[in-house]
Amino acid sequence: MNADDPLAISTMNPPAPGMSGLIQPVKQEPRAPGVPLVEFVQQLDDYTPTIPDSVTAHYLSRAGFEPTDPRIVRLVSLAAQKFVSDIANDALQHCKMKGGVSNKNKGKDKKLVLTMEDLSPALAEYGINVKKPLYYT
C-alpha cells in the first residue's frame, strides 16, 4: 500500500475518535425541485441530435402532436436516439456472446456485423417481435 496515496485505506490505523469510518456524502446546495429539468431543457437549444428535427417533427405530426416548442422535438429526438442506441448495444452484446465475429481478418480487425439473429432477441427485450417473411424461410 502506498503511503502517499490519499485514497488508500489502511486497516492498521483505526478511524479517529468520533469518526464512524464511513464515507460522508458531499453536501450540495439545496436546489428547487424543477431547476435541473429547466437547465436540461435549456441545454437542448445547443444540442444537435442524431435523428434530425425534421424527421422527428414529421412522425410527431403523423401521430397527431404539433409541438410549438422546438426543444420538445429535440427531447423526443433524444429519447428516440437513446432507445435505438440501447437496442443496438443489446444486439452487440448478443453478437459478442454468440461469438459472431467474422473471421475474414483474423489478425488486427475483427468486424462485427449486425444480423437479424442478433437484432431479434434485442428487440424482443423491448416488446418488439420481428419475424422473417415466409419467402426467407
Automatic annotation (TrEMBL):
Superkingdom of source: Eukaryota
Protein family per UniProt: Belongs to the TAF10 family.
Residue numbers spanned by region Disordered: 1-22
Keywords from the UniProt entry: Nucleus, Transcription, Transcription regulation
Chief localization: nucleus
Native species: Dreissena polymorpha (Zebra mussel)
GO molecular function: promoter-specific chromatin binding; RNA polymerase II general transcription initiation factor activity
Subcellular localization: Nucleus
Pfam families: TAF10 (PF03540)
Signal peptide: none
Protein name, UniProt field: Transcription initiation factor TFIID subunit 10
Gene Ontology BP annotations: transcription initiation at RNA polymerase II promoter
GO cellular component, one term: transcription factor TFIID complex
